[in-house]
Amino acid sequence: MNSGTQAEPGPARWRRVQDLFHAAADLPAAEQRAFLEARSEGDPALVAEVEALLLEDRTPGSFLDHSLPELAGHLLGTEIPGRMGPYKVVRLLGEGGMGVVYLVEREDVGGRAALKLLRDAWVSPSRRARFLAEQRTLAQLDHPAIAQLHDAGTLPDGTPWFAMEYVEGVPLTEYCRSHGSGLAERLRLFRAVCEAVQHAHRHAVIHRDLKPSNILVKADGAVKLLDFGIAKQLDPTGPGTDPTRTGLRLMTPAYAAPEQVEGGRLGVQTDVYALGVLLFELLAGRLPFELTGLSPHEAARRVLEQEPPRPSQIPGRPVHAGRAAWGDLDVLCLTAMQRDPGRRYPSVEALIRDLDHHLAGEPLDARPDSLAYRAGKLLRRNARAVLVTSAVGVAVLGVTAYAAVRLARARDAVAAEAVRTQRIQQFMLQLFEGGTGEVGPSSDVRVVDLLDRGVREAQSLEAEPAVEAELLQTLGGIAQNLGRLDQAETLLTRALELRRTAFGADHPDVARSLVASGQLASARGKYDDAEKEIRDGLAMLRRHLAKDDPEVARAISGLGRVLENAGRYPEGIRELSEAVRLQSRRPGLEADLSASMTELANCYFYTGQYAQADALNQQVLAIDRRLYGPRHPHVADDLINLGAVQFEGGNYSKAEPWNREALEIMIAWYGPDHPETASAQTILARTLLRLERRDEARTLLTHALATQERVYGPVHPRVASTLNELGIIARDQGRLDDAAADFRRMADIYEQVHHGKHYLIGVALSNLADVEQRRGHPAQAQELFRRVLAIYKEALPEDHPLQGIGRVRFGHALMAAGQPGEAATQSRAGYDLLVKRKDPPAIWLNMARQDLGTAYRALGRAADADRFQEELGAANATVKK
Amino acid sequence: MARAGPRSSGVLDAGTRDHLFSAAYDELRRLAASVRRDDPSRTLSPTALVNEAWLKLASSPEFTATSAAHFKRIAARAMRQVLVEAARRRSARKRGGGAPLVTFDEDTLPPEAGSEQVLALDTALEALARLEPRQALIVESRFFGGLDVRETCEVLGVSEATVLRDWRAARAFLAHELRHTG
To answer: Which end of chain A, N or C, is less packed with Cβ atoms under 10 Å?
Structure first.
């Protein structure tokens, strides 16, 4: 460690520069130099550095003093490429958050298409997944009234695109206006729209953004529903409904169902509602609610609180019909537009049926006089259908994104049931998504409320067991993310029971439950249970899925991780290598692959094979930077792992920048009170400790411990690990009782978690032994060291550095207790083990040299003593150099 | 003696981690596009965009558990990435870096000066983050996300005095770096 005041840039230097800067900043400029010179201890470079900053401080007009409006306007301009794949770009059609759409021409075979490109594909994998899911959704829909997918590909830089049918037409309402369409024509067009939507629903896709601007009528009178899901991002507001204020486009709830406005659960009834509004507009010539000029909040309130009028009551209606016909049409509209989704038509099919009843002059299923009663009855009669359709219905497009892999499976008819329930899960996840990133004290209350609400809803659904199991499974996953592990266990266990009852003991869903429950057990430190459950689940998955199915590979990887956590590294290496092998052979599994490689690297690390660990970590870092961008928590994990290897080699000042960058990413991503942040704080603190910056380290650790105890409970490996560091600080600051208490608690935690068989128990006990020695209890200390060595012998490979380190420490204690004979034996054994290594840990080697020098001297073995004292001298000289 | 244990893949799965960020990112891009569509001559203030994105997203279920300040913090990060990536592309094109993209309305755009400044600032912020991550966060939040002092305090859990002091030192540091690279 350098103790001099070299001018090398780094956090310490920067703190010094800043202190001087702040001290001098408010002095008159003329006095600053003298002030600095007096306080810089003859370091002219320091004076110059601070002066340069002071100059900037006095100079206004830095780039940073402007906000950057023009620049942003300029930088964010949309570019258009010349060609993509076989297409030549004609012009820009539109752009939104995720994508840009161009009108393109196919040069070889002719013909026009609309081509959508994912903008900034690199930003995050979930955007890419969402884009691809959208494309798959389109590919599934084959209907004359839905714009077709033609083609898809990627640009040389990896940006995905797809081309779809280019529709030249006018929005539905505008078509009717300009053609002066009569009632029959309007109902024909409306029915055609309903059929297209129903087709989508049959394929488990909800449009969610039905409105005239997404429904075009071509010159020949044919209806086309535009790009599902794409329209939503391209053009959030339709013509004539636009409350635009100074360019600010906010969601117009004109066609949005109340549950959409409230952020509630979306289902096929959401589209039914929008169809009701559309029918209203076709019949009445205006929207049911007057929303122009309202703020989004006011507009939302109106949709939520007001009853829509009857279309027949609107003056100036563009169509004519008899009184009885209007009666039917009012009922059709208002049933579709019921505020409570359960009172609407339960499906688009039911809406079409009633429309056909009307066209055929038959009585409607829904009647005005008993609307509530009938709708309720209908609902009960169709309880199962409602449930199924709303389960299907949750495949809102934004959500399917998260199930790209699962959607691909949707093509298997066999998997249809599984897919339906997967979608419930995705829906639930979306509902809670915002919360899972938030575990902090101020915000998690609301997330937890959401969770509890979800649990209550799931129970009150009285759903069929398969559906309920899926809901509970999902809620369990969320509870786990929130750190509510007890609740997670209750939910996951119940889900498993339900599935066993519903499907029998051997079924892929039972297997999924087992794997999930094993992963939870692992998170709770119950490795035996975890291993058993995951092995059972894996065997079951292998019976039902392909050998190299991504889900199988993921379960193998999960098993490897449990073995790793349990300290069974060679077995872990075997499983993880297998997962890596499967995952690297299939494209599109990079995220899984990177996770498996990380765990594999960890196993190598734990077994002291640092070169392998480092090489794997470098590969993982490259993959993750490409997958997630440079500032993602996964990248932070990789940086921490790279730092760990430096740390282990004693290169603490090299480890520090890795650790700091990682912590910065975590704070930025999660905020200061999140367990991920806590964990990064612990790691940085550990390095700072080795650099002897104890106060800084203690502050970080105290904060981290509070977060970890809150989230994980008092008996958890992460709490133990933080206690270890606090114990070391207490020891080094001479607070020996505190130190002993910390280490004792640490050892207890590891013993409970690992059933007395893990090298970490040894680490804890050897730290405790050291403190006992210092407190003047040599007998206890020696007893503890013997236990430590026994644990290491059982839990670690013979040539593991800890075997050597444990002996060196034991020797050191014996030496201090005045037992040179036994000390020499232990220290020498430790020394011999360590010195064989390619990268021997210098501190321990030197401790051994010192003790051996003294011990051999006391035993009268002068030659041996000289040898070790010389070695020590040489080593110290190298360090100083 | 303690071992610096390596880390596993984290508490949250990738999709969850990603979600808030990509929603914010998409909304910013969408707003940027719609503002230009309405009034091509209107300049875009990132701060205003972040605020508008928050108004839009605040009521969506994904964000119910997120405070305005925390959202803006995430959006500031997204905004920085949006601008840096745009600048990187522009500057690659300017150098004739073989980028296949051409600007739609290239003739009407002012010279490319701003890209270099954004890239230089990004680099300088990375350098600052290595010295004192908190200061880099403060600058990023304020410059790219328009967080005010109070919001910055809330998000970073530090006092107002610290934020002001950090900003002053960071500003001087960055201005100095920019002067010597730009």
So the answer is: C
